[in-house]
Structure formats: structure tokens, C-alpha cells
């Protein structure tokens, strides 16, 4: 995260998590025409940029030594950690290619850096608007990028740091597992203990500003799950019973082998076989239309039963038991209807 002259903020790219190292450095990612000038560099062990590692207090367990890719005489690296913004380090390269110039700090023991503050000196040709914070991996003998930021050219303090995600309160009977030690980028995975069922999304992601996406889920206790399931079954049974009472028992007899369908109704599937009278308050077609909205599966079973393909009860059972396979089952029975 960087803070410009107006206090605006932009997101830096997090390359990897911070891990302890004895050497840290800031590298230019833009070409610098007249040598890179840095007035001050500060490294902090916390994301709030308060615990300064570059200026150990008396009695501290570590020491800090400024190092660099090279310096002009009289502008050594030590001048960039002396606490004075009117002294500076100037790189030895005059035309510095991206990644050629760097300023770092060597510590007497491994430290983790979560924030870096930089004050560049001079006009735009002496600055790099893009920088990268890197650590030295002694086991692999190579540098690893940690943070990368853009917009560092305002001749004032600019901050490159990890963003601490907001603290999460676990819902009742729920567990939370947060990745990357709670720093952006991070994700939180929710799970329920016991027999509870997770209601809502099971994962939330940390935003660049430290807030979390989506709302927190909750764990439904077993008693609530049983109550909801019971209500769902009762509503389903009620819908089936109402359809059977107000539709099935009032319809003409189902088709059989000896049933006769008038020729004007044959091959005209947009015609209704049920008498329809809009002025009749007990019109059966109107009742069927309303019941289809309440219980669409009832209407499907009704169609099968009316055509003599399956009894109404069997049609309802098939839809409830084999619901995922309904497209295939419906296609087969529809071919029989035709």
C-alpha cells in the first residue's frame, strides 16, 4: 500500500509472505537517468510502521548496517538511515537500468519486515516510481521479491507495507481458518463443529483495504435443521393434498385403452381437454392454473396420470426421489404421451 502526497492510497502487489532474513533491500523497477537518490529508508517489523528496525535502540538485540549496489563518494548508504531527510544516498550507476540500483539494510540477526518507508530526493529523473522490497534467502543464495509498489516519486514519505485484514469474530459453533497469518492476500474458511450445517458462504476473501468480502455465515444447530426440514415436508404434502382435492378428484375420468378423444383435439397440444368457462367461479381450468404455480410437480404428475402413463401417486414419488434425473425421465414419458 502506498500513500501519495494527497494521502491517496493504491494497492501494491504482494509477491510472497514476509519471512525472517538478515538482509533486506529496496530495488528500482524503473530506469533512473541521473542516478537514484534516496534521502531515507526505514524498515519496520509491524504493519503499522511503528517498530523501526533501521535505528535500533540502545540495548537492542540486533544491529543495522546500510548496504547498497554502490554509491557516489560522499553519498554512502549510511546517509540513508541517519534520520536526516536532507542527506541522501546516491547510486553509483549514472543511467540505472531497472533492478540495477538498490539500497538495503543488513541486520545482525534475522528479522521480518512488514512495512518500508521511503523518501526519494531530487527531481523525477533521480527517482524510481516503481520499487520492490526484497529479502535475501541465504539457503538458496538468491533474492526474493516480497512487496512491489507504484507511485513512489513525490519527494516525501511513502509507505510500502503489508495490510492486516480486519479481525473476524467466529459465529456461534463455528471455526475459522485464516491463511497468510491474516495479512492481505488472505482467505477465511468457515466450518461448523458437531452436526451443525453452514448457512451462507464457506469462504471469504480479504480485500486490499483489509476488509472482508461477503457476509459472515452462521451455523444452523441440528434442531433448526430438523425444524426446517419438517416444515418443508409439511408444505410439500399440503400442496399435493390440495392439488389432489381440488383438481384430481374433479377432473373427467383418466384416459384408458377404450377412451375416445375427439378428432379436433388430436395433434393440437395447445388445446385444453379441460372445459373452460371464465365466468364460472368454480372453473376447473382456473383452479389448475393456480395449483400449477403452487405445486408444479403436481401438474406434471397430473399430465402423466391423465394420459394413462403413470398413476398420480407414482408420478409424485418419481419426481421426489429422482429429481436430478427429471429431464431424462420427462423426455421418456413425453415420448410416450406423443
TrEMBL record:
Sushi domain location: 163-221
What Gene3D superfamilies does its record include? Complement Module, domain 1, Galactose-binding domain-like
Q: Which UniProt keywords apply?
A: Disulfide bond, Membrane, Transmembrane, Transmembrane helix
Q: Which residues cross the membrane?
A: 225-244
Highest taxon in the source lineage: Eukaryota
Q: What is this protein called?
A: Sushi domain-containing protein
Amino acid at each position: 500500500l502506498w500513500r501519495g502526497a494527497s494521502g491517496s492510497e493504491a494497492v501494491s502487489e504482494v509477491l510472497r509472505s514476509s519471512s525472517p532474513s538478515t538482509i533486506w533491500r529496496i530495488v528500482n523497477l524503473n530506469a533512473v537517468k541521473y542516478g537514484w537518490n534516496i534521502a531515507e529508508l526505514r524498515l519496520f517489523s509491524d504493519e503499522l510502521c511503528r517498530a523501526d528496525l533501521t535505528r535500533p535502540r540502545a540495548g537492542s538485540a540486533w544491529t543495522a548496517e546500510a548496504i547498497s549496489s554502490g554509491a557516489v563518494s560522499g553519498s554512502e548508504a549510511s546517509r540513508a538511515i541517519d534520520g536526516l531527510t536532507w542527506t541522501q544516498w546516491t547510486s553509483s550507476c549514472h543511467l540505472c537500468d531497472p533492478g540495477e540500483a538498490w539500497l538495503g539494510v543488513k541486520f545482525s540477526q534475522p528479522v521480518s519486515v512488514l512495512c518500508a518507508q521511503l523518501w526519494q530526493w531530487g527531481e523525477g529523473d533521480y527517482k524510481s516510481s516503481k520499487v520492490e522490497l526484497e529479502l535475501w534467502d541465504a539457503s538458496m543464495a538468491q533474492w526474493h521479491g516480497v512487496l512491489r509498489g507504484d507511485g513512489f516519486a513525490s519527494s516525501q514519505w511513502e509507505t510500502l507495507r503489508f495490510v492486516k485484514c480486519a479481525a473476524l469474530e467466529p459465529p456461534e459453533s463455528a471455526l475459522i481458518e485464516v491463511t497468510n497469518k491474516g495479512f492481505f492476500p488472505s482467505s477465511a474458511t468457515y466450518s461448523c463443529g458437531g452436526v451443525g450445517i453452514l448457512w451462507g458462504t464457506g469462504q471469504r476473501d480479504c480485500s486490499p483495504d483489509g476488509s472482508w468480502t461477503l457476509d459472515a455465515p452462521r451455523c444452523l444447530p441440528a434442531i433448526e435443521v430438523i425444524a426446517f426440514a419438517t416444515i418443508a415436508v409439511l408444505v410439500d404434502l399440503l400442496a399435493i393434498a390440495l392439488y389432489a382435492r381440488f383438481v384430481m378428484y374433479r377432473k373427467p375420468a383418466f384416459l384408458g385403452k377404450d377412451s375416445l378423444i375427439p378428432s379436433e383435439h388430436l395433434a393440437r397440444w395447445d388445446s385444453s381437454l379441460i372445459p373452460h368457462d371464465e365466468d364460472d367461479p368454480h372453473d376447473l381450468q382456473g383452479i389448475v392454473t393456480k395449483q400449477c404455480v403452487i405445486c408444479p410437480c403436481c401438474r406434471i404428475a397430473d399430465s402423466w396420470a391423465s394420459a394413462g402413463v403413470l398413476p398420480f401417486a407414482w408420478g409424485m414419488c418419481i419426481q421426489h426421489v429422482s429429481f436430478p434425473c427429471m429431464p431424462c425421465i420427462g423426455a421418456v414419458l413425453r415420448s410416450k404421451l406423443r
